[in-house]
Amino acid sequence: MTIPDDLLYTESHEWIKREGDNIRVGITDHAQSELTDVVYVELPKLERQVNAKEPIAVVESVKAASDIYAPVKGTVLEANKALEADPGLINREPYGQGWIFVLKIENPDDLKNLKDAAAYKTHIG
Amino acid sequence: MSERKTPLYDEHVRLGAKMVPFGGWLMPVQYTSIIEEHLVVRNNVGVFDISHMGQFIVDGAGARDWLNGMLTNNVDKLDVGMGQYTFLLNDRGGIIDDLIVYRIDEQKYLLVVNAARADEDFAWLQNHLKEGRPPDRPSGGLETAAPCTLVSRSADFGAVAIQGPRTMALFHALFGKDIELPARNHIVDVPFDTTNVSVARTGYTGEDGIEVFFPANDAVKFWSAALERGKPLGIKPCGLGARDTLRLEMCYPLNGSDLSPERNPIEAGLGFFVDLAKPDFVGRDALLKTKEFGPREKLVPFRMKEKGPPPRPHYAVFGNGERIGEVTSGTLSPSLNWGIGMAYVSSAHAKIGVEIDIEIRAQKFPATVEKKPLYRKPAS
User: Fold this and answer.
1) Which of A60, A31, A28, A30 shows the shortest CA–CA distance to A43?
2) How does pLDDT run along chain A (125 residues), one tens digit per residue?
3) CA nearest to A64 within chain B
4) How far is CA B183 from CA A71, B83, B366, in A?
5) Using CA atoms, how far apart are residues B43 and B39, in angstroms rounded to an integer?
6) Nearest residue on chain B to A55, judged by CA atoms?
7) Which residues of A touch B30 (CB under 8 A)?
8) Burial of B58 (0-12, 13-18, 19+ CB in 10 A)
9) pLDDT in tens, B80-103
10) In sequence order, what are the residues at sequence separation of 6 or more whose Cβ sits closer than 8 angstroms to the Cβ of residue B309?
C-alpha cells in the first residue's frame, strides 16, 4: 500500500497536499483498495464553507456509499470534474488524477492536527 | 461471534481475496475487482466458493409427502435427478428461506439452503419432523405418511459454482469429454479423481453454469483443478460482490434483503414457485388470503432514468410525491454501467413502465419500474 511521505493524512483516510494557502484532498491507496471499484463520486459545490470533519463528498463503490470529510475548516475552491466521467481514476491514481477537491484553508495551524505518513501507516496497521 | 471458515479459506487468502463476514462465515467479497469478476462470468467463466451454503438430506419412504407439507413448490414434479426452486415458510406465509430441493434418489432429497438461515431452517424442519405435523394444525390435515430422517451435512461438504458461457468447455476439461452435462435443473454424480462429486446445472448468475458438491476434504483439489484447467478459458475466482451484482441483474432475490419472514412469495412476485393446488403446506392459508385480497406491496425491478448515484438498500421510494416503498437491493449494474435495483412498492405502483423516484441523500432521482430481468444477454 503506497503512503507518500510528502502528504498529510486523516483518520478517515483522506490525504492532504499543501499548495500554499490551499490544500488538495483525495482518498488514500488503502481507502480506495478497501472501497473497491469506485463507480460514482458526488463532488462538493464550489464556494461551500465547511468545518473540519464535515462530510463534503461521497464516493460510491459497487457495494456501498462512503462519506469523504473536510480535513480542516475552509472553502471549496475546486472539484475534480474528471471524476464524473471516470470515477475509476480514484482506484487507478488515488494520489494523482484521482484527487477530489481543493480547499482554501482558514488557518494553516489546523494542519498540525493531521497525521504524517508514519502516523497514518500505524493507524491502518 | 467468530465466523466459520470454508475448506477453501486458505486458497482465498493466498489469492489475495478481501475476506468479509457473511451469514456466519468468512467469505471472499472480491479477489481483484467486483466489476472484473462480474464481467468474466458474463463473457467467459468464473468460479465461486459456495461451501457456506447449507445442505440437508431428507431420506425415507415419507420424505416426499413430508417435504410437500413443508415447502411451497410441488415435490411430486421431481423425477430422480431433478431439482426445483422453492420456499420454506412460517405459519404466516412469511419466507424463512428460499432454497433448491433436488430428488437425488427414489426416496432421498437434497436441500441446498442459504448460509445465514441454515441453522434456523434446520431447527424449523426438525421441530416439525418431531411433531409429525405442523404446530398450526393440531389435528387432521397434514400428517407424515411414513417416516423420514433429516440430516445436515453442511459441515462435511464443500461446494463451488462454475458460471459463465464457457461452463461446458470447463466441465469437459474437468470430467472428460465423454461425460455429459446434466440438463438444466438436474443433478448427477460424476467421477472426479478418486471420488464422486455431485454436479447440478444450476446457478445464481443468469449464465449457463453448474454447482458442484463434494466432501470437504476434496475441496482444495477440485478448486485448484477448476482454476488450472479453466486458465485457457480465461477463468477467474469470483467473490460474493460479483455474485450479488450478477443475481441482481437477473432479479433473483437475496434472502435477508429482498426476502424476509415479513414478506411472502406472492408479494415477492415469486408465486410461480408456490403450488396452491397442493392440499396443504405450512403457510398455505396465509397465501390464499394474500391471493384473495391482493398483496399491499410488491417487489419490483427498477432502472434509474439518468446516470447518477446508484440506488442502495433502504433508500425511500416515491410515487407522485408520496412515499410508496423502499429499495431492498440496488447497485450499479456492471453489465449496463447503470443504476438498477429492486424495491417493495404499493401494489398500485407495481406495474411495468410506472415512473417512481428514489430518494438519495435528500434528493429525488427518477426511475422506471421494469420487467424482469434487468439485464438481457445481447443475441450472439
Assistant:
1) A60
2) 899 999 999 999 999 999 999 999 999 999 999 998 999 999 999 999 999 999 999 999 998 999 999 999 999 999 999 999 999 999 999 999 999 999 999 999 999 999 999 999 999 98
3) B312
4) 58, 11, 41
5) 6
6) B361
7) 36
8) buried
9) 999 999 999 999 999 999 999 999
10) A40, A42, A58, A60, A65, B339, B360, B361, B365
Q: Does B341 contact A at CB distance below 8 Å? A: no
Residues B187 and B108: beta-carbon distance below 8 Å:
no
Distance (Å) from the C-alpha of residue B236 to the closest C-alpha of chain A?
A: 17
Q: Which pLDDT score is estimated for B140?
A: 46
What topology does CATH give the domain B296-371?
A: Elongation Factor Tu (Ef-tu); domain 3 (2.40.30)
Q: In what order do the strands lie in the sheet with B187-192?
A: B187-192, B195-200, B209-215, B157-163, B46-49, B236-237
Q: Which residues of B touch A31 (CB under 8 A)?
A: none
Which are the contacts of B374, defined by CB distance < 8 A and separation ≥ 6? B248, B249, B250, B251, B301, B303, B333, B336, B340
Hey, what CATH class is B54-151 in?
A: alpha beta
Check pLDDT > 90 for residue B2: no
What is the β-pairing status of strands A74-79 and A49-50? antiparallel
Q: Cα(B320)–Cα(B13) distance, rounded to whole angstroms? A: 49
- Which one is predicted more confidently, B239 or B2? B239
Measure in Å the smallest separation between the Cα of A37 and chain B Cα atoms: 6
Q: Determine the residue of chain A that is closest to B333 in CA distance.
A: A62
Backbone angles phi, psi at B288, to 5 degrees: -60, -40
Which residues in B359-372 are b (16+ Cβ under 10 Å) and which e? Answer: bbeeeebebebbee
Strand partners, B200: B187, B211
| Cβ-based contacts of A83 with chain B (< 8 Å) | none
CATH number of A8-108: 2.40.50.100
What's the CATH fold of domain B4-51+155-248?
A: Gyrase A; domain 2 (3.30.1360)
What number is the ipTM of this complex?
A: 0.87
Q: What is the mean pLDDT of residues B121-149?
A: 70
Would the CB atoms of B35 and A62 count as touching at under 8 Å?
A: yes
